Inverse folding.
């Protein structure tokens, strides 16, 4: 199974967006995915809905709660729409330390093509690859 990481804070009403992102990945894939959802606040109702989506595509979800105290170490600027959950991505290496590789996606995007070729891309000696929003780029 290939690893996919999605990060969510449902108190900002992103549960629907996360479901859309997850469904778009799975519908465009022939692979089974091992999904890691890193969250600060996620309702049981949303988890049930996400599990239904994953199971219908022979994939599974691992829920990894991140504590508010871990996130509160980081400050978000005044007047921004962002919350401290944006810093959860900094914990991915620690949270997935037993995984060789993972793709991280924001939880409010729609994936239009399979992610397998991105996952299989050889990063050579690099520990991270980045693709700019809306751009065709090489890693």
């Amino acid at each position: 199974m290939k690893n996919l990481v999605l990060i969510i804070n449902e108190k900002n009403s992103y549960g629907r967006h996360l479901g859309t992102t997850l469904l778009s990945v799975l519908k465009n894939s022939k692979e089974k995915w091992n999904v890691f959802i890193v969250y600060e606040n996620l309702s049981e109702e949303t988890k049930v809905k996400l599990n239904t989506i994953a199971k219908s595509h022979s994939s599974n979800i691992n829920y990894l709660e991140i504590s508010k105290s871990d996130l509160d170490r980081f400050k978000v600027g005044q007047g921004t729409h962002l919350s401290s959950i944006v810093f959860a991505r900094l914990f991915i290496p620690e949270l997935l330390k037993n995984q060789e590789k993972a793709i991280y996606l924001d939880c409010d995007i729609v994936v239009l093509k399979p992610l397998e070729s991105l996952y299989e891309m050889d990063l050579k000696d690099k520990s991270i690859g980045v693709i700019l929003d809306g751009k065709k780029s090489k890693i």
User: Anything to note?
Assistant: The chain has a mean pLDDT of 86. Helices lie at 15-27, 44-55, 68-71, 92-95, 116-120. The chain has five helices and four strands. The two ends are 22 Å apart (CA to CA).
